[in-house]
Specification:
GO molecular function, one term: phosphoric diester hydrolase activity
Helix content: 25-40%
Structural class: alpha/beta
Protein name: Phospholipase
Largest sheet: 10 strands, mixed
Organism: Pseudomonas fluorescens
Number of strands: 12
Radius of gyration: 20 Å
C-alpha cells in the first residue's frame, strides 16, 4: 500500500472501505487491538504518581476506535459505592482508571452511530473483585440493557461480516468474558485466549545468559516469531500481546512493530487474529491489518472458486 493510499483510507471506517472482507468472519480477520484500552493518558488514576506506568493508550475508547482499533482489551473492577454503569471501573494491575463502563458504552454507541459498518470485539479479559465481590448478575443486566441492541448473539459468531449485516444493521459488537454462571452465554462469548510473554518471558524465549542480555524488543520479536510459527485454530479469535514494559511503564515501540508487521517484510499480520498493542494513536498497524484482510479475502475467494471449478469438472465427467 502506498503512502498516498494510506492517506486516503478512512481509519474510522476502514472495514467499510474493504467490501471484499465481507466474505470473512470475525474469527478469520486480523484485527488491530488496543491493550488495556480502559487505561489511557487522558484518564485519572487512583495512584496519581504512577499514571505513566499504568496508561497503555494515549486516548479514550472513542478515539481508539476512530483510529482503527477493532478489538478492545479491557479489565474491570467492581466499585460497590458507585451507581449504575459507574459501579464498573477499568483497572490495570490494581490501579483504577477514572474510566467506567458508562464511558465505554457511550463511546461504542457514538462510534457505531457514525460507523455502522464497522465490527468490534469487546474483550473483557479480566474481571476483578473490589471491596466486595464483583456483581456479575448486575453487570450482565446492565450490558444487555445498555448495549444489547448492538451485541452479536454468540450463535452468530461464525457468520461472515456480510451475513451479519444481513441479519441486523445494529449488531456489531462481539462480547467475550470469563465464564460465570450469572453471565448470559447467548450474549457473552468464551474468554479470548491471549498469547502473552508475561512474567515467564525469559523461559518462553530461552534462558541462556546470551538471550537474557538481549534487548527487550529482540526478545519480544523472538517470542512473536515462535507463536506465529505454530498453526492456529480459526474457530475463535485469539489475541497476540505485542507489548513490553520497562521501569518507566509501557514501552512505545511503534517503529519496531511497524517494521515487524509490515506485509512487505513478513506474513505476520495475516497470521494473526488480534494484534494487541499499546499506543495505537500513531501506529501503522491498522493499515497492515487492512492489507492482510484484503489478502485473506482474496485467498478465500480463490480457494472457493477452485473448489467450484473442480466439482463442476467432476460433474461433467
Amino acid at each position: 500500500m502506498t503512502q498516498f493510499n494510506r492517506q486516503k483510507l478512512p481509519l474510522y471506517e476502514w472495514m467499510k472501505a474493504a467490501p471484499e472482507i465481507d466474505t470473512l468472519s470475525l474469527n478469520e480477520l486480523t484485527l488491530p487491538g488496543t491493550h488495556n484500552a480502559g487505561c489511557d493518558l487522558e484518564a485519572d488514576y487512583s495512584n496519581v504518581f504512577m499514571r505513566n506506568w499504568f496508561a497503555c493508550q494515549d486516548v479514550s475508547f472513542y478515539s481508539q476506535l476512530n483510529r482503527g482499533a477493532r478489538a478492545l482489551d479491557v479489565r474491570l473492577v467492581y466499585n460497590p459505592h458507585a451507581n449504575g454503569l459507574e459501579k464498573f471501573r477499568f483497572v490495570h494491575d490494581k490501579t483504577w482508571s477514572s474510566r467506567t463502563l458508562a464511558d465505554l458504552v457511550r463511546d461504542i454507541k457514538a462510534f457505531l452511530e457514525r460507523s455502522f459498518n464497522e465490527f468490534i470485539i469487546l474483550d473483557f479479559h479480566k474481571i476483578e473483585h473490589g471491596a466486595e465481590p464483583f456483581d456479575f448478575k448486575y453487570f450482565n443486566e446492565l450490558m444487555k440493557a445498555q448495549l444489547g441492541e448492538h451485541i452479536i448473539p454468540t450463535a452468530n459468531r461464525h457468520l461472515t461480516l456480510g451475513q451479519l449485516k444481513d441479519v441486523s444493521r445494529l449488531q456489531r459488537v462481539l462480547v467475550t468474558a470469563p465464564a460465570n454462571r450469572h453471565l448470559d452465554r447467548t450474549v457473552f462469548g468464551a474468554q479470548i485466549t491471549h498469547q502473552w510473554a508475561g512474567s515467564d518471558f525469559l523461559k518462553v524465549v530461552g534462558d541462556t545468559l546470551e538471550q537474557i542480555a538481549q534487548p527487550q524488543h529482540t526478545r519480544l520479536q523472538a517470542f512473536i516469531a515462535r507463536v506465529l510459527a505454530e498453526p492456529r485454530e480459526k474457530s475463535a479469535p485469539w489475541s497476540l500481546s505485542a507489548a513490553i514494559y520497562d521501569a518507566g511503564g509501557p514501552v512505545r515501540m511503534l517503529d519496531q512493530l511497524d517494521t515487524w508487521f509490515d506485509p512487505d517484510n513478513s506474513d505476520w499480520a495475516e497470521k494473526c487474529s488480534i494484534i494487541n498493542f499499546d499506543f495505537i494513536k500513531n501506529s501503522n498497524l491498522v493499515y497492515f491489518c487492512y492489507q492482510a484482510n484484503i489478502k485473506k479475502a482474496f485467498e478465500k475467494s480463490r480457494g472457493y472458486s477452485s473448489y467450484i471449478l473442480r466439482h463442476s469438472n467432476s460433474d461433467k465427467q
